[in-house]
Amino acid sequence: MTSLRHRFRNVVTSEEELRTVVGQPPERSVAKVIQIIDEYARRFIAHAPFVFVASAGADGMVDVSPKGDPVGFVKVLDDRTLAIPDRLGNRRLDTLRNVLINPNIGLIFVIPGVTYTLRVSGRAIIVRDLELRETLAVNQKLPDHVLVVDVLHVLSHCPKCMVRSGLWQPDAWPDTSGLPSFAEMLVAHGKLAQTVEEMQAIIDSGNRERLY
User: Fold this and answer.
1) Mean pLDDT, 10 residues at a time, over the chain (212 residues)?
2) Which of 10, 54, 103, 116 has the fewest CB atoms within 10 Å distance of its CB?
3) Residue 96 belongs to a domain
4) CATH code of the domain containing 83
5) pTM check: above 0.70
6) How much of the chain is helix, strand and coil, in % rounded to 5?
7) Where does the Pyridoxamine 5'-phosphate oxidase N-terminal domain start and stop, copy by copy (predicted)?
């Protein structure tokens, strides 16, 4: 961090400096934070097929993991509790390992075509209760683990970032012709012995056979 600061001349180090430039938030931005999953938050979560989950390990390193499933896959157990199924993946278990050490997590729920998002912060535990896992089954396949979140803060996030990015506007989407494939990145970053074609076949097989 020290070496990074040496690269720049004007580094902000206090909230006072931030406020001098930006000013204070309007009252509505402060008042919109609630401590429960109310009717409006429930309706948003019920329509969301995608959520970003942020967690941090013992060393403070922050990880953000995307989770996606059929619409409404995150279950509202009550107005203070959410349940997020952990589906088959790469077995890194970054989020779950972090939660074992540091229970604090943050969530951003995303709905395609909707320009605002829902942010939730809280503390999580990992559970394997059969009854709960059964309610989260897809194609009769149960998740091995469920991330259960004790909700502390809930707030809606304004549309500006979505509007600026043109995320839901196909005409604004970038040209991806020069984008490396997932297989190319895996082979390059992992220095793997497989060819890109072989890795692509592995990925395609996993997408067909290991979704649940």
Assistant:
1) 88 96 94 96 98 95 97 97 96 96 98 98 98 96 98 96 96 95 97 96 94 92
2) 10
3) yes
4) 2.30.110.10
5) yes
6) 35, 25, 40
7) 38-154
